[in-house]
Amino acid sequence: MKIIRRDFLNQTLLGAGAALLKMPAPAAAARAERDTFTGYGGVGDYALSNGDPWSVVSAGHRLTKEQFRPAASEIAETGESFDLIVVGGGLSGLGTAYYFAKATGGKKRCLILENHPIFGGHAKQNEFLVNGHRLIGPQASNDFGIPREGSRTQMDELFTELHLPREYGWAKWDDSLKPLRFARDNYSHMDGINDTQVDVGYYFGRQGGSGKPLWLRNIFASKLEGAPFSDRVKRDLLKWRATTGGSEELRRHLDTISYKDYLEGELQLDPQVTKFVEPVIGLICGASPDAVCARAGHNLVIPTSSPGGISYPGGNTTFGRHLVRALIPEAIPAEFSFAGVLNTAVDFKALDRPGAPTRIRLGASVMRVEHASGGVAVTYEKDGKLYRTRAPRAVMASAGWINRHLLADLPDELRAAYSEFHYAPAMSVNVALTNWRFLYQLEAPAVRYFDGEFGWSCNIRRPMMAGTYQPVLDPNKPNVLTFYLGLYTPGKSAAEQGELGRKKLLSTTYAEYESQIRRQMTTLFRAAGFRDSKDIAGIVLNRWGHARVIQPPGFYYGRDGKPAPREVVQKGYGKIAIAHSELNGHQNATGALAQGKRAAEQVTA
Ligand SMILES: Cc1cc2nc3c(=O)[nH]c(=O)nc-3n(C[C@H](O)[C@H](O)[C@H](O)COP(=O)(O)OP(=O)(O)OC[C@H]3O[C@@H](n4cnc5c(N)ncnc54)[C@H](O)[C@@H]3O)c2cc1C
Question: Are 450 and 456 in contact (CB under 8 A)?
Fold first, then answer.
């Protein structure tokens, strides 16, 4: 069946959606019609900021094409006075502002400039209302670990300061139903992560092109019995799955070679093992195993006995919201508790109030940053107008791919270091389902498939509950099915893989992706009763043009005895400090918060 854009609007936004969505249907439809890229954004605080929406992508492209040099007469000086300007309101930027406020007793003024319609960066969420059920899924940053109370790590202290609990409640599973093992995040089911602790259905298609599709469950637990691999490949896949951990010396060695060379050269595994692990490496490390250092790839293989990760309802969105609640209490006017912050809408007007010690200016695209008059001048565009604001110090928390275009006086040493950072796109898709009986029928809350038209795996989680957010776990009730995927091209360099993937990500319309997703789900699930027209209530795409820094050999410890580029960039220069998660090594929420803390210490020293 050919699905056209109008059909989708009729089915999910104007038809079923009109009664269900908080955003008035005509407004949602008008937005979707205007912009063939961004598509439907769900409801709630994040409805206008799914992934990088077209407005943000197009502003970024103007910058990366040429250095921005507006005439002075085009820029309005705001005349405001700040002690610190932070560029970027992701976890690094919010973390910077938090530690800056802490170090200065909340007495200094900090402005965060963020180009999205909401703060959070890669830590945002999608929300849906389906048949009266509120559903939340992560846009990108997803799992986290609970720090041990009293361990005195940054995260331990932050959990206490931000009123985050160490124990959580999870949706109940009815004992009278078939027992199913659910992931509590959207990574555990993936190859090499906690795949042995989740019920995963593996779809191998129609073997030989005809006949019944081959579905197997939990292939590693059954030692790949029945899987369409040769005995040698089966033996090698089991060896790969069991090769985990290692000494610091091994890690250093693995930083000098590609993951493909490690698997096929040093471990002598069949190239089909490399092919098997490609999607998870392509997603988390940003490129195929031939362009990624073995240290990064090997790190993703977790012992089968390790506990699985967990996710807040909207993934690490929670950290950003709690930081904002701590900095600007009126912006999330709720009791300062996990449930309060999760369930209370952001008061956007409160984010940028004159006189407040911390202000967050949304929809403000920074175009140029430079030293001027003994401090730093920051030029940004908001609502089509150019403004300049100034402070004695600035922190660039806006990621390396854009910083090198924004920083007009970037020294050669840092420019050279930045030129070694290559960024890869990634995408997540949250499909709101009216029911998931088809997954229950397959006894597989997570699915892995091969050579699909769209993606390679997806899952529904056992959702976390908090306060009035009480999602149910029932095959007959709504839930969110989440897909995560990288866009990589084996055989190309890291830089080329990033470019090619981005080209594909940017040139595919929402309608094309939507059709692919519907067809892919139909291929996988039709025999189990799935019908896209009645089982799908809404699809949100979250496209990230520069999701991951690709970690080629030398990324962690440098090459030829030289320091790693990330160490060079961390030094910053003049009055400008630089903080974004990839400077910490592997990108994660903890690393972003650590970078925020480091930058705040740098500017308050
Ligand atoms: C798909 C995906 C999945 C992930 N999963 C996990 C996970 O499960 N667990 C985990 O711990 N981590 C995960 N991460 C990594 C982690 O979320 C990120 O490393 C972290 O959130 C990055 O924070 P940041 O503040 O450094 O950068 P960002 O989140 O990129 O924030 C930078 C901010 O700067 C803004 N900005 C950029 N340019 C400008 C400009 N010119 N003007 C103004 N603002 C600008 C951006 O819009 C953005 O809001 C994931 C990341 C991705 C992409």
Answer: yes
| Distance of CA 439 from the midpoint of ligand 1 (Å) | 31
pTM beyond cutoff 0.85: yes
Residue 390 lies in domain: 67-118+346-421+552-604
Q: What is the CA radius of gyration of the chain?
A: 24
Q: Is residue 399 part of a domain?
A: yes
The string of pLDDT tens digits covering residues 403-420 is 999 999 999 999 999 999
Average pLDDT for 557-564: 84
Q: Is 175 or 209 the better-scoring residue by pLDDT?
A: 175
Alpha-carbon span 334 to 356, nearest angstrom: 18
Residue 136 forms part of a structural domain: no
* Residue 500 burial by Cβ neighbours in a 10 Å radius (0-12, 13-18, 19+): middle
Q: What is the total count of domains within the chain?
A: 1
Using the mean position of ligand 1's atoms as its centre, give its distance from the Cα of residue 540 in Å. Answer: 18
Instruction: Output the CA 121–ligand 1 centroid distance in Å.
Output: 4
Domain contains 524: no
Give pLDDT tens digits for 86-105. 999 999 999 999 999 999 99
Residues with CB under 6 A from ligand 1: 87-93, 113-116, 121-123, 140-144, 187, 316, 365-366, 397-399, 402, 406, 426, 428, 544, 547-548, 580-581, 587-589, 592
Q: Which of 397, 485, 345 is nearest to 51 (CA)?
A: 485
Q: What is the Cα–Cα distance from 284 to 274, expressed in whole angstroms?
A: 15
For residues 371 and 573, is the Cβ–Cβ distance under 8 A?
A: no
What percent of the chain lies above the pLDDT cut of 90? 86
Given a cut of 60, whether residue 246 has pLDDT beyond it is yes
Helix (H, G, I), strand (E, B) or coil at 423: strand
Percent of the chain with pLDDT over 70: 93
